[in-house]
Write a structure and sequence with these properties.
four-stranded antiparallel sheet, about 300 residues, 2 domains, single chain, four-stranded mixed sheet, Phosphoenolpyruvate Carboxykinase, domain 3, globular, Trefoil (Acidic Fibroblast Growth Factor, subunit A), mainly beta
């Protein structure tokens, strides 16, 4: 995401962190305002930070008179205005997010305005103009560190009956099961809106074009609007349930191709398809925002 400011404030932000905006006329009340749309930032300052942002448990606000517009802080970590929302309420048809705490944000570099900074600041902050949403190796290390600090631990998902691991193919967008390899394409985390995201490529698990048995499972970019087709949860017996189809993620080991072994089946055909997750390290069960971590509501901690 992005956040712009004036050049003379950059040093203060690096030394002291982002300050939470606190004014009576703010659109989403107090918080730090960021956006996925870099165009949203143009009117707020000539220097723009490229950021990693953990929204946590988020609420979508689409109406100006929504009472949660100013009351979301108690139960949510962030509030989000989608693109092209209520005209009077939204500026320039860009989406924006307000996060409660500056600890939900990490600086990657400068998206534009790098040349306006002093020499020593230019040495501290990479010039990331034109890099968009992509992350290089250094930025991925910052992401890994942030996830660990926030207690968002990547896990591998194991199918109990077959002992095979859920993984994303590195040559295609297909998802399959395979023996354990220890590679990043077998590591997954749960996003704030119940998607299952792969560490290797940052894409989330979805069924193919239809829900037939012959349709492979795929990965695709996360839909910020909360597409039902991307949402999953584990039921109380450890079975993966797909929200849009109300069917379960199953494994058929009689099929030859690994991509064909994964399928969506109804409840009656998924009685033995239990999954468990293996955390790669210890994780907290609460964070410092609203007592929420990505695995809550997906599995039981007991």
């Amino acid at each position: 995401m992005y956040h712009s400011t004036k050049p003379h404030l950059v040093r203060e932000i690096l030394n002291e962190g982002f300050k939470i905006s606190q004014r009576f006329n703010l659109m989403l009340d107090d918080g730090l305002y960021v956006s996925r749309d870099i165009g949203k930032t143009f009117t707020y300052g000539p220097v723009c930070f490229k950021l990693l942002v953990y929204p946590g448990k988020s609420i979508m606000i689409t109406e100006y008179d929504d009472p949660m517009r100013r009351e979301w802080h108690r139960n949510f970590s962030s509030a989000w205005i989608p693109q092209n929302s209520f005209d009077y309420f939204h500026y320039n048809n860009y989406e924006e997010t307000c996060v409660k705490s500056s600890t939900q944000v990490r600086i990657l570099g400068i998206a534009y305005g790098h040349e306006l900074l002093s020499y020593d600041l230019r040495q501290q902050l990479p010039n990331l103009y034109g890099t968009g949403d992509s992350l290089n190796r250094t930025e991925n290390k910052i992401l890994d560190s942030m996830l660990e600090q926030l207690g968002i631990i990547y896990s591998s998902f194991v199918h109990d009956e077959s002992s095979l691991f859920l993984e994303c193919s590195r040559s295609t967008d297909c998802v399959r099961v395979n023996d354990w390899t220890g590679r990043d394409n077998q590591l997954w985390t749960r996003t704030w809106d119940n998607c299952l995201e792969n560490k290797d490529n940052g894409l989330v698990l979805v069924p193919g074009d239809d829900y037939s048995l012959d349709s492979p499972l795929m990965v695709e970019p996360v839909d910020a609007a909360g597409e039902k087709n991307q949402k999953w949860r584990l039921d109380n017996r450890g079975r993966f349930l797909h929200k849009d189809s109300n069917e379960y993620l199953c494994v058929d080991t009689t099929r030859r191709r690994m991509e064909d072994q994964l399928e969506l089946r109804s409840y009656n055909f998924a009685k033995n398809d239990h999954w468990r997750f293996r955390c790669m390290g210890s994780t907290r069960t609460t964070d410092s925002f609203v007592h929420f971590t990505p695995w809550q509501e997906m599995v039981s901690w007991n």
